[in-house]
């Protein structure tokens, strides 16, 4: 009987349910998304591990949804395909999962940390730390690029943004990994462990917050929150929620794009050769790598009223998964070679890796600058990354990333 039940369950798997973790673990997501874009750009999945949802898989469809934030709410159901369950989850609001006007005020609070003038101020330190990191790497010797370079550089940057104790900076990576792992919702024991880590994070940051109260403003995110009307009176859970947003956003976007540049340029040697021959292509290559990788595969919206989207009837309360990872491979926008890295792709900057509309990633400039500086410093050393084996990937449909990537570096 158990075998029969398993067989029936296997038969009822929707091949176009692109929330399945194994598609990302095994890097097999491209084909079902191509089919969705071609045949059903707005597709209803009745049965999934996350319940019923609409897949929005094309560039045009996602831009339409993101351009109507009052009709498609970020707050009503949260920003991931996983549902909040009141009986077992603790709500931790964050501004990316709030609608206007709360979203507007809280976003404005942290935005000054990412202005062009702040990017200029931070660029020298980012370049110094990146240079030191690259100079410490072993040549022609295997090592893990993800942990040694990508995680370390992004964790250092987060520590600076939060004025976080340097010796404890790897706690930020730990908390980010637990917060961003959407698969945890399927396991009650892991849910409990994640909650414990989130409260550990909140308690640690509460100490940093308390130490800055009644102090003069400083250019870090905690001080900005304290000295703002929009965020100074947050309750503890909202404080944790916004911290987690900034940690996960700052960590996963940059770290997985830094890993993607190592893996992707090795995978597409013609583009790597172009970039090595012409470093002026680096700014465009950054956009192209972000497009190709798409470090957050989806965001979720919830319909606030009955509506129509690309011929499909959406009901109030319906869940929509906006698959940025698919939109960034949309042939109608990026051409038939959208699955390849093309460092001189003329419209690479049209990517949706940072989202679109009012919820577009507030730290996009910083992520782009960190990746660009890494490529520039590699070019200055004529450093080539040679991938030794396939990476181990994150098995989840939210964070699209890498656990490990074995490489060697050599001169070109």
Layout: helices, strands, pairs:
Blueprint: H1 2-11, H2 21-25, H3 30-39, E1 42-45, E2 53-56, H4 59-66, E3 72-73, H5 102-110, H6 116-135, E4 143-144, H7 145-162, H8 170-180, H9 188-212, H10 221-226, H11 236-267, H12 269-277, H13 282-293, E5 298-303, E6 307-309, E7 312-314, E8 319-323, H14 324-327, H15 331-334, H16 364-380, E9 383-387, E10 392-393, E11 402-404, E12 406-411
Parallel strand pairs: 2-8
Antiparallel strand pairs: 1-2, 3-5, 4-12, 5-8, 6-7, 9-12, 10-11
Briefly summarize what is shown.
This protein is of the alpha+beta class. The chain has helices spanning 2-11, 21-25, 30-39, 59-66, 102-110, 116-135, 145-162, 170-180, 188-212, 221-226, 236-267, 269-277, 282-293, 324-327, 331-334, 364-380; strands at residues 42-45, 53-56, 72-73, 143-144, 298-303, 307-309, 312-314, 319-323, 383-387, 392-393, 402-404, 406-411.
Salient structural properties:
about 400 residues, Cytochrome p450, 5-stranded mixed sheet, 3-stranded antiparallel sheet, disordered N terminus
Structure description:
The protein has helices spanning 2-11, 21-25, 30-39, 59-66, 102-110, 116-135, 145-162, 170-180, 188-212, 221-226, 236-267, 269-277, 282-293, 324-327, 331-334, 364-380, and strands spanning 42-45, 53-56, 72-73, 143-144, 298-303, 307-309, 312-314, 319-323, 383-387, 392-393, 402-404, 406-411. The longest helix is centred in the middle third of the chain and has 32 residues, at 236-267. It is built from 16 helices and twelve strands. The model is unreliable at 1-11 (pLDDT under 50). The protein is an alpha+beta fold and 412 residues long. The chain has one domain (18-411): Cytochrome P450 (Cytochrome p450), CATH 1.10.630.10.
């Amino acid at each position: 009987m158990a075998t029969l039940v398993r067989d029936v369950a296997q038969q009822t798997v929707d091949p176009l349910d692109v929330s399945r973790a194994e598609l990302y673990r095994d890097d097999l997501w491209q084909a079902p998304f191509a089919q969705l874009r071609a045949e059903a750009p707005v597709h209803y999945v009745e049965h999934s591990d996350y319940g019923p949802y609409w897949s929005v898989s094309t560039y045009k469809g996602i831009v339409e949804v993101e351009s109507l934030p009052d009709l498609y709410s970020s707050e009503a159901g949260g920003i991931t395909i996983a549902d909040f369950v009141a009986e077992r989850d603790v709500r931790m609001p964050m501004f990316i999962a709030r609608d206007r006007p709360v979203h507007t005020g809280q976003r404005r609070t942290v935005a000054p940390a990412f202005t062009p003038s702040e990017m200029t101020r931070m660029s020298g330190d980012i370049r110094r730390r990146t240079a030191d990191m690259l100079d410490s790497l072993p040549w022609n010797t295997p090592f893990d690029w993800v942990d040694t370079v990508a995680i370390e550089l992004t964790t250092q940057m987060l520590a600076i943004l939060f004025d976080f104790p340097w010796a404890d900076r790897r706690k930020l990576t730990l908390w980010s990994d637990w917060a961003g792992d959407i698969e945890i919702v399927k396991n009650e024991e892991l849910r409990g462990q994640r909650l414990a880590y989130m409260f550990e994070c909140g308690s640690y940051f509460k100490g940093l917050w308390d130490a800055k109260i009644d102090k003069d403003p400083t250019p870090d995110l905690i001080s900005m929150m304290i000295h703002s009307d929009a965020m100074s009176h947050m309750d503890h859970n909202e404080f944790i929620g916004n911290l987690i947003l900034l940690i996960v956003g700052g960590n996963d976007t940059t770290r997985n794009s830094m890993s993607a540049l190592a893996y992707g340029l090795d995978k597409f040697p013609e583009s790597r050769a172009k970039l090595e021959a012409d470093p002026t292509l680096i700014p465009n290559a950054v956009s192209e790598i972000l497009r190709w990788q798409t470090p957050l595969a989806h965001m979720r919206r919830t319909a606030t009223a009955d509506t129509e989207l690309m011929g499909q009837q959406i009901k109030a309360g319906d869940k929509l998964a906006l698959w940025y990872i698919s939109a960034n491979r949309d042939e109608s926008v990026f051409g038939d070679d959208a699955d390849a890295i093309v460092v001189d792709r003329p419209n690479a900057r049209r990517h949706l890796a940072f989202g679109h509309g009012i919820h577009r990633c507030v730290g996009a400039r910083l992520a782009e600058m960190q990746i660009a500086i890494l490529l520039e410093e590699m070019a200055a050393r004529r450093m080539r990354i040679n991938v030794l084996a396939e990476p181990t990937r994150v098995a989840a449909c939210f964070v699209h990333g890498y656990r490990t990537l074995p490489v060697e570096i050599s001169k070109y």
